Amino acid sequence: MPNNTILIVDDQYSGREVLRGLLTGQGYQLVFAASGEEALRIARQSIPDVILLDVMMPGMDGFEVCERVRTDPKLAQVPILLVTALDDRDSRLRGIQAGADDFISKPFDQHELRARVQTIVNLNRYRRLHTERAKFEWLVDKANFGHLILNDADQIVYANVQARRYLEIPLEAELPTDPFPQLVTKLYNCEPQSLWEQWPNMEGDVPAYLVRPASDNSESLWLHVQQLAMSLDATEKYLINLQDVTEDMSVKRLMWTFHAQIGHKLRTPVMLISGSLDMLNADKEQLGDDHKTLVSSAYKNALRLQSEIQDVLQYLDTSHIAVSGGEMCDLNKLIELVDTIKTDLQLKSIGFNFDENLIQTNPVLPLSPGATEIVLQEILENSLKFHPQQAPSIELKISRRDSQIRIQVLDDGLSLQPEQLTKIWAPYYQVERYFTGQVNGMGLGLASVASLVWDVGGACQAFNRADGPGLVIELVLPIRELL
Length: 483
What we know:
Layout lengths: L3 E6 L3 H11 L4 E6 L2 H11 L3 E5 L7 H10 L8 E5 L4 H10 L3 E4 L4 H33 L3 E5 L5 E4 L1 H6 L13 H6 L3 E3 L1 H4 L11 E5 L8 E9 L8 E7 L1 H9 L1 H27 L6 H33 L9 H15 L3 E6 L1 H6 L7 H17 L7 E9 L2 E7 L7 H6 L9 H4 L8 H11 L3 E6 L6 E8 L5
Parallel strand pairs: 1-2, 1-3, 3-4, 4-5, 12-13
Antiparallel strand pairs: 6-7, 6-11, 8-9, 9-10, 10-11, 13-14, 14-16, 15-16
């Protein structure tokens, strides 16, 4: 931190040297001026922390210098200590009127001078800190982001206006004493849950969200949560930033019309190419060796292109189809969709495990049939893709607890590392490169699943099977109450 600068103004060389001797070695940077004009010029260049100003000077005296300093926008806040041999009441009154902050009389008392200067330096530093803090608080309160400061007990010690709005804390109310993770769960779903379970160590590439699900009366609200460790000070441990990313999440909906058109323009020609190459590939034994190789390669890459286009368009479209047309998917429809997907993917075995009363009550999910199909398609397709022999044995468990329905998809394929289990819900994260070195598809499948499930107030997690190799994908969805 730079030393405080003190400007000493005295027309007498001896006066300047006396002050130099008294203040040298006190941690100040000393600069000198021999006249009022020189003092103003140096002050504008260096912006001192304190001016020690002699009153009795020829030409421009100390009172006039003081007045000019106070009318200069750059210097108006600089403290001035008038140095005078005058001890009469009128001189002090004139100094106050000119804008002086304090006075000290000649001859100097060494201890008094140093104490006066140190006090003014400290007060000026506190004033600047207070001003900067006021500016900071004004800017933060006007920001569109929510800002919080937490102590080492995760309690909020500061919340700007926007953060209070997000957390439904009245502007004039006392800050709640609940720890931040407990406070937000009263208003939002913390997603992904596996990341929030690591609080406060939520570092890494996976974004953390607070999600208020859509309801009949309001749209969903998505807050992106960022965390910064401030210091080892227990009173101010973490800075939390809350950013409303609802609009970003809704961009997919706004782009629906475009995607519907461009999707058709992309899908149709690729499907025609794939179909034509499929026919050639079926009859390739009639071709020469070189042509057989070319046809096989073209067919394989056409299928890959078709899959990647489907992944991208599907991911962009998921927000629109979550509740498209208001139609909801019930349990019977879900079973039909599983059978259809099983046939499409040529899966050999899918076992069903339901609670007995579920078939009779036929609960309704908060997803449209189209969204439900995407969710199941992605999960089952992953089970197929990551199975060592591409022949998984899959079990679908569905159970109900209060107003929620739990769907578990169990396979007997590969198990994942803890880091991979956390990241598989992030867009463009590709697990397969860790096993095969290949990047098949765009890595958007489970991100689409998470986007759909979180937006309707559900939760999703992945964990390894305890009874052998394989993965369990678990979705917990609120049961839709139909009016």
